[in-house]
Amino acid sequence: NALLNEEKAIVSEIAGTTRDAIEDEVIIKGVAFRFIDTAGIRDTKDVVESIGIQKTFEKATNAQLILLLSDGKNKDGLKNTIQNVATKYPEKKILPIINKIDLLTADEVSTLKTKISNPIFLSAKEKQGIDTLKKELTSLVNTGALSNNETIVTNSRHFEALNNALTAILAVKNGIDAGISTDLFAIDIRECLRHLGNITGEYDVDKDILGHIFGNFCIGK
Question: Strands 120-121, 93-99: parallel, antiparallel or unpaired by DSSP?
């Protein structure tokens, strides 16, 4: 909820409130992240909650990153929970997040830092530490620890140029497959470069570009 800045999931002091997985996407510094909020991992005799926990493990299996959110007041079982998850998913990147720091003393925070490696402390209720979490997420992408396979194009002109460039590239590929002369599909290569140049700014000014400028921008005398 704090990341989305909206009350997407129902939260309460009662353990086991979250049963179904809730998914949503957030753009952080231009990078699209898909978050999946799942049931907390704990021992329970509740049949429905047990199904939710099983779904948690299924979602974790397919996730690139596990954000292991724990209650900072539950200091005794915190380290064991992290170790158990790390053992179950040895190849996964796990980011320990300790919530409710607004209820912890400075000494308690210091103690947790000695027990847990590189945790992120936050208070979802008070919106403390959210920026730190966002910075860590974008850092993981920038360092290659996380990959983002989606490219978001927000400019309609860029979108059109990319589609035109793709059409030209496919024409080149078809020409190569057909064994035609390179002189013939060189035109398509030039077209592809021209469309990409419309995005990067490396192009010759022609009447189409001038038409776009005068058609979309207010230019005074």
Answer: parallel
pTM attached to this predicted model? 0.55
Burial (0-12, 13-18, 19+ Cβ within 10 Å), 87: exposed
Q: Among 16, 79, 23, 78, which residue's Cα sits nearest to residue 53? A: 16
Using CA atoms, how far residue 183 sits from 164, 167, 173, 186, in Å, is 20, 18, 14, 5
Contact 99, 122 (CB under 8 A): yes
Domains along the sequence of the chain with CATH: 1-143 (3.40.50.300), 156-216 (no CATH)
Tokens 């996380």 sit on residue: 146
pLDDT digits (tens, 9 = 90+) for 156-166: 788 888 889 99
Instruction: Give the pairing of strands 65-71 and 93-99.
Output: parallel
Residue-wise pLDDT for 46-96, tens only, equals: 666 677 777 878 888 888 888 888 888 776 677 788 888 888 888 888 889
